[in-house]
Amino acid sequence: MFLRKIEINGFKSFANRTEILINSGVTGVVGPNGSGKSNIADAIRWVLGEQSSKNLRGIKMEDVIFNGTQNKAKKAFCEVALYFDNEDRRIPYDYSEIVIARKMYRSGESEYFLNGASVRLKDILDIIRDTGIGKEGYSIVGQGRIDEILASKPTARRKVFEEAAGIMKFRTRKEEAEHKLEKTDENLVRVEDILEELQ
Ligand code: ATP
Question: Of 23, 24, 30, 113, which cross-links 101 as Cys (Cβ 3.0–4.6 Å)?
């Protein structure tokens, strides 16, 4: 599995539809200060469900939509699509290519797509869990993140290794199952109360 292409339209400094093709090996992005290099990493993080505008270096989420310049009008929406080569089926979804996309309007309304079909963010998070490509995954290492990992508590640091080892999905499923059990317990208590009232 590898990221083959990024398509950015109306996101931050990318006013027009822009395609970034990524070949195998190491790819470097070079450009003057303020030319939009970090905006590419922000775009990737945003598609993968980033909900915090602060993490995207903005104040409000709307700040990710191209805000216009002297010569160009601002955009009404932005969209970003990540094209993953999935020949090795590392992403557990039976397609050779996986396209994860997100679109957002100035109203704040946001839509997610998986190979063109409208899905919930949860569906996307479910299929990328344990692949390392989640916004919290080890594939995006932002400035200061290494220091943050080194300085974090052992339990927080362990999560990075759990993601890399591919056991996060089991932890999440366990938490979901525990939550369901709690709900079932609550329902049982309610049923017992009703039974008692009826007797
Ligand atoms: P450096 O090398 O200094 O880290 P960089 O190449 O990583 O710079 P970015 O931080 O990616 O640059 O891009 C900053 C640019 O993006 C600024 O010029 C800023 O005006 C522009 N920008 C950010 N948000 C928007 C937006 N919503 N609309 C238009 N331009 C934006």
Answer: 113
